[in-house]
Amino acid sequence: FNKLSTLKQLLSNFQLGENIFRIKTDQSDSNKSPTVKVNMARSNKFVIQKYVEKPFLINGRKFDIRIWALVDHEMNLYVFKEWYVRLSSENFNLNENQIDNQYVHLTNNAIQKYSNKYGKQEKGNIISCHEFKVNLKMLFSQF
Length: 143
Prior knowledge:
- By secondary structure, the protein is α+β, with helices and mostly antiparallel strands.
- 21% of the residues lie in helices and 19% in strands.
- It contains five helices and seven strands, in the order αββββββααβαα.
- It has a three-stranded antiparallel sheet. Strands 1-2 form a two-stranded antiparallel sheet. A two-stranded antiparallel sheet has the order 4-5.
- A hairpin with a 5-residue loop joins strand 4 and strand 5 (77-79).
- It is extended.
- The two termini are 30 Å apart.
């Protein structure tokens, strides 16, 4: 949802015991039904997160950094030297017609691999740590 009033309505319905929420979707999208039912388990705890509307972008696209670390039983931290950056397939924007486009907003490879633009700019939508360091100024084109 993109309005605080929608969150308030969902929480109100939940407190009244309604555990099935109906969320209106764009009916012009032939892949979606006009209404989506969302089943939620009864709980008095929620995780609510705010979407970052002005994220850092690489070449106009969202990204995340994948790095591996291990903390052992003695609380020693080990960090693997190699890491990489995963990117979305499509340029970031918050237009109403793109708000549900997973290829704009999510960087997960399990999702991105189905995009027609997957791998068009980088092999597998991935930039290695070495490539990232070499091209740092160019990559952050918004600065």
